[in-house]
Amino acid sequence: MRRGALFALVLLVAGWALTLWVAPWSDESINDLFVYRSFAGPVLHGSLPYREIAFEYPPLAAPAIVLPGLAGTAGETFRWAFALWTLGAAVGVVLLCGAIARATGGDARLAMPGAALMPVLCGALVRTHFDLFPVALLLGGLLLLCRERPRAGLAVLALGGMTKAFPLVAVPVALAWLVSRGLRREAWQGALACLAVMGVVAGAAVAVSPGGAADAVTYHLDRPVQIESTPALMLLGLDAAGFGDARTIASHRSDGLLHPAADAVASLFAAGLVALVALLCACVGQRPALAGKDPPGGRELVIACLAAALGFALFGKVLSPQFIIWALPLGALALAWRMHALAASVALAAVLTQIEFPARYFDVVAREPAAVGVVAARNLVLAAALGLCLRELLPGRRQQELLDPRRAPVAVGLD
């Protein structure tokens, strides 16, 4: 193993130890491990998700949750098994960030340590949730696309979407990028591969229980706006201004808000997400007007796809604290590309999330101004990170990079 990768992995393991034994990183007073144990135990005894057990996640989330239970589903046993399981996923994320940095002209010696700081920035939530697995699949799909294996890349993105939905927003962006490079055949073949994977996995869930699979979809459609989400902050603002009463409700294993304008606000933000994805597609789909110059390669694809995943969290009606994990590879790769403002904004958003969760979560539910202010600041920082991504993708910015050799990507290897 090369020295750069070894250093990053040692840093990662040290951070993981912090989340197990050193406060405040070890605070896991609120986590999903009990929910996961309650699901894993019956599945390992032969019960089927969607049929005998209600399951709110896409089908491939089941193995990500259940497999640590092979070591045992007693509380402490499962806790340690899940910590080691997620550490394995974190190793994959660190190495994938290094590989993507190399493929896009970045410095892998910065990307891998940047990704290895995940536990330091996020605390225990990084090992008490399964989000690192769909993140790894998202990165794996992007790496395959950067290495000119579009069909495999889009199939892996579909696997990510069948684990947790957010990697699917990268699919239209990837297709637009392929078409802009003249790879129309690869684009439609990749789209078919993506649809085939999704059809097989979703079809298996429907075959197990059509009603249970449908309930998994309606579960998310019916849940109220979650208290930490951007739409919720708008509802709290409307309440403070005297435009309707925002009422807190415990529902769908989280805390949400009911307000007369809740559906309209959630729909407005959903439309904003659609517009964002369309804008990202347009950015990667515009060829530069410089004769004899190809568009920048995988870097713009990776920025756009990770920005789409960030937008999924920021514009959705749920922004659970673990969603910040989705943004961490963007920060690590921004560091490798020397986009320091973008890297700093992602790191700051992660730190603000750790300040709020879990120690001040119930203050947020109680609408304590300081706690709500931390959440609002975190969401504003995420919005700033999204804006920085869009600035990097603007056609004028890309043409400037092509004209100025000092800004052109330069591949950097490891020692």
Q: Would you mind describing this structure in some detail?
A:
The chain is mainly α and 415 residues long. It has one domain (3-407). 66% of the residues lie in helices and 3% in strands. The protein has a 3-stranded antiparallel sheet, covered by helices on one side. Helix 4 (75-103) runs parallel beside helix 15, helix 10 (184-208) crosses helix 11 (210-222) and helix 12 (230-240) crosses helix 13. The chain is globular. The protein starts with a helix and ends in a 12-residue tail after the last helix. The model is unreliable at 288-296 and 405-415 (pLDDT under 50).
> With helices defined by DSSP (H or I, 4 residues minimum), what is the helix count?
19
Question: Going across the major beta sheet, what is the strand order?
Answer: 1-3-2
Q: Strand fraction band?
A: under 5%
Largest sheet: number of strands, sense, barrel closure: 3 strands, antiparallel
Q: Mind telling me the C-alpha Rg?
A: 21 Å
Number of strands: 3
> How many domains?
1
Secondary-structure-derived class: mainly alpha
Give the overall pLDDT as a whole number: 92
Shape verdict? globular
Instruction: Assign a percent range to the helix content.
Output: 55-70%
Succession of helices and strands: HHHHHHHHHHHEHEEHHHHHHH
Uncertain residue segments? 288-296, 405-415
Give the end-to-end Cα distance, rounded to a whole number of Å: 10 Å
